[in-house]
């Protein structure tokens, strides 16, 4: 589990007690420094890493060009609304030509959910 240097000691101890290995990184705006984290994981010879999370971590992975494969799960639920959260935040794009596109698309169905898998073209 990656945490910042400012992570609460009691939470870290609970994670360690549960058997987790803790990796401390410098915080960037209160978040784990992904470049430092991936450098460390590379030194450990870890080449396949699953990153699961919400819009902030997904945005950081895409904006930092850290993801070499993206899998998006889509549930058959329509939320909508002008204030609805997007699965990807960040700066966005002004024109479609600036958008990150996915290549080598693979689509799978899991019960009612759909997974779209692809390789980002940065």
Strand order, sheet with most strands: 5-7-6
Number of domains: 2
The whole-angstrom Rg is 17 Å
Strand content: 25-35%
Assembly type? single chain
As residue ranges, the low-confidence spans are: none
* Helical proportion, percent range: 10-25%
Order of helices and strands: EHEEEHHEEE
Tally of helical runs: 3
What is the CA–CA distance across the termini?
A: 27 Å
Number of strands: 7
Entry summary:
The chain has 3 helices and 7 strands. The protein is α+β, with helices and mostly antiparallel strands. The chain has 2 domains: 1-49, no CATH class; 51-122, no CATH class.
Structure description:
With 122 residues, the chain is of the alpha+beta class. The protein folds into two domains: 1-49, no CATH class; 51-122, no CATH class. 23% of the residues lie in helices and 28% in strands. The protein has helices spanning 9-17, 34-43, 55-63, and strands spanning 2-4, 23-25, 27-28, 31-32, 70-74, 101-110, 113-121. The strands form three sheets. Strands 5-7-6 form a three-stranded antiparallel beta sheet, with no helix packed on it. It has a two-stranded parallel sheet with strand order 1-2. Strands 3-4 form a two-stranded antiparallel ribbon. Helix 1 (9-17) links the parallel strand 1 (2-4) and strand 2. The model has no long low-confidence stretch (mean pLDDT 91).
